[in-house]
Amino acid sequence: DSSDNEGTVIEAPDLQVYRGDRLAIIGNNGSGKSTLMKMLAGQTEEMLVEGEAKKGSSVEAGYFSPYTSLPNEDQPLRQILGRSDPNAMGTLAFWGFNKSTSYDTKPRDITDKDSQARAQLALMMAQQPNVLLLDEPTSYLTPSYQEKLVESLKDYDGTLLVISHDPHFLVQLGLSGRIVMPSAQRQNLYS
Fold first, then answer.
1. How confident is the model at residue 103 (pLDDT cuts 50, 70, 90)?
2. What angle do CA 157, 160, 164 make, to 5 degrees?
3. Sequence-distant (≥ 6) Cβ neighbours of residue 140 within 8 angstroms
4. Reported pTM
5. Which residue has the higher pLDDT, 188 or 41?
6. How far apart are the C-alpha atoms of 185 and 24, rounded to whole Å?
7. CA pair distance 90, 69, nearest whole angstrom
8. Spatial distance between the Cα atoms of 106 and 103, rounded to a whole number of angstroms
């Protein structure tokens, strides 16, 4: 995401991500990390994209970005989560939405960034995706919820791609490799 009008150019001709990979996407600010993540998530409405990304037929991806809006629905979070999560109340409690004050909260009523991030993570995790695409997931989370995120990701057995500038967070995730931007070159950590 360049500050000039030319935008970001990414060439990733042979980037392959395999089932069960746990990869960090790393690089300097403006190197195309978020752009690559958006492409992988299919969030390309505002991009000019040449080529294609192929995904397996059973891939169900969940995408998190601190800049993604919550759904504009007139239902409480617990009802939205309940569509796909039989333990919606437990999921909400895990992410700090307690029964007495938060279970009837509607997405449009959540205004602080920490709560928005926690709600977005709860909604994404409720879908039980087998691929998680996380762009700076700790940006707005308080330290206690950063720890909860690490806890949930340690137990996650799907494919994980994560962008973070927090080396402590990345170390805790048990990563198997990294994708270095801007070249999108894959490097395995344990060969």
1. confident
2. 135
3. 66, 113, 114, 116, 117
4. 0.86
5. 41
6. 12
7. 23
8. 9
Q: How confident is the model at residue 93 (pLDDT cuts 50, 70, 90)?
A: very high
pLDDT at 129 over 90: yes
Give the 3-state secondary structure of the chain.
CCCCCCCCCCCCCCCCCCCCCEEEEECCCCCCHHHHHHHHHCCCCCCCCCCCCCCCCCCCEEEECCCCCCCCCCCCHHHHHHCCCCCHHHHHHHCCCCCCCCCCCCHHHCCCHHHHHHHHHHHHHHCCCCEEEEECCCCCCCHHHHHHHHHHHHHCCCEEEEECCCHHHHHCCCCCEEEECCCCEEEECCC
Give tens-digit pLDDT for 156-172: 999 999 999 999 999 99
> Token pair for residue 8?
């970001």
Statement: residue 184 has pLDDT above 80: no
Chain length of the chain: 191
CA nearest neighbour of 173 among 21, 41, 45: 21
Long-range contacts of 106-113 (CB under 8 A, 24+ apart): 106/73, 106/74, 106/75, 106/76, 106/77, 107/70, 107/71, 107/72, 107/73, 107/77, 107/80, 108/70, 108/72, 108/73, 108/74, 110/70, 113/66, 113/139, 113/140
Q: Which residue has the tokens 């991009």?
A: 47
